[in-house]
Structures are given as C-alpha cells and as structure tokens.
Amino acid sequence: MSNYIRVCDVEKYYGNKSNVTKAVDRVSFCVEKGEFVGVMGASGSGKTTLLNMLATIDRATAGHIYYADTDITELKEDELSEFRKKNLGFVFQEYNLLDTLTIEENIVLALTLQGGKKQQIQQECEQILRLLGIADIREKFPYQVSGGQKQRCACARALVNHPKLLLADEPTGALDSRSAQTLLETFTDLNRTMGATILMVTHDAFSSSYCSRILFLKDGKIFYELVRGEKTRKVFLQEILDVLSLTGGELSDAR
Amino acid sequence: MLGKLAFRNMKRSARDYLVYILTMTVVTALMYAFNSLIFQNDVNQYFELEAIMEVMIGLATFFIVLIVAWLINYMVRFMLEKRSSEFGIYLLLGMKKRTVARLYMRENILLGGISFLMGLFLGVLLRQVLLAVMFSMVRMEYHLSISLNRWTILLTVLCYAGCYLLALFRCKWKFKKMNIHDLMDEKRKNEEIREKREGFKRLFLPFSILFILTFWKVFSMLTNAGEIALFLIGLVATIYLFYIGLSAWIICYVRKKGNRIYQGQNLFLLRQFASKVRTMQFTMGTLTALFTLALMGASIALMFSDYENTVLEEKFPFDIQINSVDPEDDFADEIGIIEEDTKIQKLYSYQIYTDNENQVNSWMLTHLRAWGTMYQKKDGSPDERKIEKMLEEEGVYCTYDTYMGVTAYNELRSMLGYGRVEINDGEYLVHIKPRLYEEVKEIGKALKIADASGEGRLSCVGVYGEPFSQDGHNGGDYVVVVPDQVLERMTPYYAELAADIEGEAPQGLNKKLDELTSKEKDYAGHVRPNLQGNSCCGSDNIITYAAVNMVRDNLIPEVKFMLASLIIPLFYIGLVFVCVAVTVLSVQQLSDSAKYKFRYDVLAKLGLQRAQIHQMIRKQLGAYYLCPAVLAIIISGKMILSMSKAFVIMTGVPVASASFFIKSIVLFFGIYAVYYVVTYIGFVRNVDEKEC
Fold it and tell me: Which parts of A99-176 fold into alpha helices (H)?
C-alpha cells in the first residue's frame, strides 16, 4: 500500500448532541502519487466536506489524514498554514482570484508568499503562464477575461509551487462546455507531463470521465469505486453514468 | 410587516455601521452641549460680549451642519450602494419603488433617531463638563444642574433633521431613477478597476509634491489676500490630484515589476492600497481637507488658550489702573468711585513725561521683530518719514517718547512687590514688556538721552522686563526711567492712577468708571483710548487689550470669556471634523471587510498564517489611515507654523512656536488611535468570523 496520501476512518459531524448530521462517515482511501482521482456524489453527499478536510481548511471530527508520514489532523493551526503553503494547491468553482491583481500578479503573489528571488519568480511565472496558455492575457484583470481563462489562471496559481496535491472543487462548475473541456484536458496534461497528483470533486459525469479513478460518495460514505484502467474515455463515461443512475436508490436496488 | 422589516434591517445596519452611530451620537452630544452655550444665560448676562460667543458658536454650528450633512449624505448613499442588490430583490418580489424608498427612509430615520436620543443623553452630561470648564475659565462658581433647555433641543433637532432630510430626499430621487437591473448590478460596478493613461496620471504625484514644496517655501512670503487665495485654491486642487497621482504611481510601479513587489505580501498590499485610493480618491481628498482644517482649528485654539493661561495674568499687574490724557488730572471722580466700592490699600497717581522727541520710538520701530524692515530704508537706516506718519496716525506708540521719574517707578514697583531700583544722577533704565525683553537688551547703546543740565549724556544701567501694565499706560511698549531732576526739563505728557485694593474688586466697577465720561465706547462697553498724540496701545497684535480704565478682576474674566468664544468653537469644529473624517475611513473599511474576507480567505488558502494575515490587516489599515493624515499634517504644518511664529512674536506667549502644532497632532492622533483600534478589532472579527 502506497503511503503518499492516506485517509483513514475520517468522520465529520455537524450539529449538537440531539441533532447530529454525519457529513462524512468513516471514509478511508488512498491516493497514489501521480493519480488523478475524482470524487463524485449528489449535493449533500459530503464531497466538499471531504475535500475541505484534505485541504486542511476544515478539521475532521475523528480519523486521520496522512500526507506521507505527516498526520495533518494532529497539526496546529500555524503548522497547517505552513503545510498548506508548501504542499497544496487549490482550484475552486468560483475561481477565487484576487480582483485587485492582474492574472500574472495573482500567480506572482503565490510565489512571493513562498519567498524567493525576483528572477526565479519571474521565470517560474513565465513558464506556467505559457504552459496553461494564458501568457497573452497576463496584463488583464480577472473581470476582463472569460471564466475559462480565470480558471486556468487559478490552476496556474495552484500549480506554480509544485504542490504534492492539487485540490479542485467543481472546477468546471461555472464554465461553458468548451472551456470545461479545455480545462479538463489541461488537468490531464498536467497529470501526465508534470506528474501532478490531482483530487477533483465534481457532480458532473463528463468531467469525472477524465479521471483515472473515481470514488462515489453517498450520505457521507463511499459506496462505489471505479477505475478507468485502459478503457477509453467514452466507455468509462458510460460506466460512470451507469453508477450514477444507481445513486437515486440503494446499490442493492439495482442488483 | 414593513415596519418589522425596517426594524430588523436597522438592527443589522446598526451592527455593521456601529462606528457611524457612535459618531452621530458624539456629534449630537457635541452639538447639544455647544448649542447650549448660546442659550446659557447664567454666564452671558455678566458680559456685554455675549453676542460674540453666540455668533461664533452659530458660525461653527453652520460649518458643522454642513459637514455632518455631508457625512449623513455619504453614509446614506454608501449604505444604499452596499445594499442595492437587496433592494433589487425587494423589487423583484413585487414591492413598489416607493415602498422600498420609504422602507429605507424609515430605517434611516430609526437609526438617526436612536443615535440622536443617545446623543442627547450624552450631551446633557457633556454640557455639564463644558459649562464647568467655561465657568472656571471666567472665574465663576458653577452649580451642577441637569436640565434640558428646550431651545437648545429645538436647535439641535433642527440642525440634525435638516441634515437627514436633505440626504434622504437625494436618495429618494436616486431610487426613482433606478431599475432592478441597475440595483442588482450596482455592487459589481464598484469592483471594476479602470486603468487608463496611468503613465500620464502618474505625473500628478511629482507635480503635487512640487506644489506642496513650493507652498512651504513661499507661504510666509505671501503678502496680499489675492495671492494667498490663489495658493489655497491650488492647494485644494493639489490635494485631489495627489491621490490620483499616488495610485497611478503605485500601479505603474507594480506594472513595471519593481523589486519590492517580489517581497512577501507587498504585491497584495500595494495593489490593495492603489485600488482603494483609486476608487476613493475624491473622498480621500475631502478627508485630507477636513483633517487640515481640524488641525488648524485645534492649533489656533491651543494658541489662544496658551495665551490665556500664560500672558493674560501678566497683562493686568495692578488691581486698578486708570489713564488720563490730561496731564494735570487729579482723578478725583475716579477715586470717589473706587473708595465707594472698595477698601483701598494704596492709591498712587503720577505723570508720564516726554522730551518731545522720538528716538526711542524710532529705535523700536526699526529693531523689533514684529516690524521687520517695514520702517527701514533699503540701506537699513530708519525711514523718518514713514516713522513720523506712523506715530501720528496709528497710535501704537505715543507721538513722542515716554519717560518716568525713578521715584514714581519705585513706588509702582513696591506696589507690585518688585525690589527697589537705584539709579544715580547720570543714569537711566528702560522698562519693557516681558515679551520684548530679549529684543531690546542692546537699546542702551543706541539711545542718546541728555542729563538734567541738558549738556551731558545719561548712561543706560539696564533693561527691566517685569509685567508693568504698559499697553498705553506706562508707555506703549516701554518707559524710560530717569532721575527725577531730569524730568524738570521735560513736559508732563499724560497722567496715570494705580490702585491696590483689598480683596477682589466688585463686579461692575469697571463699568462704573467707564460711565464717568461720555466718550466713545468699544464693543465691550469700555472707554477706548483715542490713540492719538499722547494716547497709545503698544505693539501687541492679534489680541490687544487697550482700555482707559482697567479693573483687573473685572477684565480678566471678560477677556477670558472673549477668548473662550474663539477657543471653544474652534475646538468644536476641530473635534467634529476629525470624528467625521475618521468615521468615513472606518466605515469604508469595515463595510468592505466582506470583500476583504474573501481576499484574506484566498490568502489563507495560499498558506498565510493567521498572525501574518492580521499583520497584513494592520498594515493595510495603517496605510489607509495614515495617508490622508500625513498629507494633512504636511500641508497644515506650514500654515500653522508660520501662524504660530507670528502669534508668539506678537503676543509674547512664552513657548516654542512648534509646540501648538505638536500638541494638536498629539490630540488628533489620540482620537485617531481610538478609531483605528475600533476599526481593527471590527475588521479582524469580520475577517475571522466564519473560520472559527
């Protein structure tokens, strides 16, 4: 068993004693280095909560999350920020770009927060801008570019520090289908060429068909797992849709 | 239902705009307390000058109402913008525009009403403090009485309601013109950052800095009102241009990728600051102007209050001092009145002499700092024609020099408790006002005073500078003291009476003395010296107090009251202006904290620690708060420094001229710090809110 990222019996409860909601209920899984994992589920299934715990933005009620040998559930707040800065990258549905900064500056900021020399920062920024095809809009402000471009900028910002894990929460949620496709191809590229490890939360079957493995979440529990293996994307998409058609009822109902 | 909604909304606004409510409360309290001075009959009835206080406070109230109207108008509009999408939703739900406008108006009236009532309560307390201060200033006993004066309340309500209605009607008009889409869109409009022609706009920064430098260099040389007005207009324009230039400069720096942006959070902070200044440039300019005015008001008030505390007591060393232009006057009527009303310890009447020349006068006019080079020719020698004209017309000094015998001088010294002074036959001394003492030390070298025989010269044995009731009594600024026999060859010039009485002089004694003659009275009802020939008032300026009859215990409270009617309104204006300006800054920041929360959340996701984020907030608020303050300090600095320099020279307040400026800055930053801390705490709470 790989020990790149291990999620062990993680639980997250909301509410008080009399009224407990189990958002995530004893979830365990592993992520290998260089994997592109998708987490699917209907709204309310706990997928974003799970992502937030992996992202160290939210704390687990019980269980452990290991990045290599570091158990992030044991870290203090300041250690968590440090950990986040060094190991994680984020892409969110609503882009989360800083509106006062240009596209390029949004990326530069992520680099300067890590510290580093001017030339090195410029070089890395240049590289990632080109890799994601947004070099020609670098001078623009977020409100001046399209959603797809904004999301690619967010990707660039997330990846520029070479994180151990890229966390994406509904990254295609606000994009048109063309932009969504481009973005997903970018993800696949990054996954293949840079060896980036990606965990993507989505409820969109098309998006998840780009992943190499998909976890299906329902009522806070993993209820199915699909691995793409050597299958074509089309076949894989069909499989996903089959599984999704079950999520309306219990898995046993389909059998 | 609408009432309930309005109430709920008001409650929410109250939390979001706590600083605004606090300020409105404080302003109401100040307004009530100061307005009550207009209707304060206990003090006013004693002074003929009451009108001054009323006019000054009225004038101050006028400016304050203007500025408070601006604040309310700004806030009402600001809240409208912030909540526009909410109003859009109301319209979507089918509410009529009129209903929404009325709802908003009702909310604001509720909000205003609450702060008004709180302010009134605070104002009643503040009034006690203010009156106690005022009474102790004019040396009267004050009995605590908590009462509401209906005229004061009425006036305060009128001022307050006027401000509100004006603002709300403007809003109603704005509502009328809006449609749902505009309302929903309003919020987004603010966020656009327009960057056009930054390279050109950037030039405003060096331009405005250059203008301010020129202003510093040239201001004290400006002489006529036209030039000064022109410069002030330029200054106002510069203040606004400065902010355009500043934000453009930062933007250009960031675009050029200066080295500093690659360090830590600088990039974020610079961009944040530039965009805030950009969208707020007009408001920032107005705030700078308000700060400048507040600083100047406070400094001038401090100048006068320093005068009151240091110089005033020295101005009236004798219990009673009376002047008569008739050298042979025996003061029989005056003595009669004084004897009637008081118990006299000592009475002394004497004469001031003259030698019908003006060498001392002309030395004064050519050597004192107050006159500069006004009475010198280009080569530095005295300009006789100008001096003669001045002596005849302006009454600063008598037309001829003023002398006094050493016996009379020593009598007066003993009345004041000073030690006796001995001079020999061939000697003289000069007695000068305390403030001029340092400047005339060398006078003995220049004067050529003939001795009793008229052939020899007297030699100077010293200059004395104790308070000696000059200002037209014992000379304008100076009196030359000579051996008694020298007086024989001089002519009596005018007569003086000095009295030492037991205890305090009764109220109204001065008035009784003034009523002896039917001569022209001044605005305070005192007999005014005619300032011609043998009547003069000395070279004091800004605050002069020349009177024929002076009863110390009557005059000091009167002068203090007069000064108070300058000091109090100036402080009043200063306080309100600072509060209003800082409120706008605070409210801006606090209400934006939702937007900032998002930005700081993003930064937290990028791995910034909480402590680092708090540090960034401190820096951001600090820059935002300091910018208008520093600019205001730089601009007002020059004006205050040259004013206080002139003030020190002309009135003789024994302090360094920069001290007023420094004191008002300290006062100013005290208020500033309170608002900064309150804003910081609120800001951090808003940013941290959901994360915990």
Answer: 103-114, 118-131, 147-159
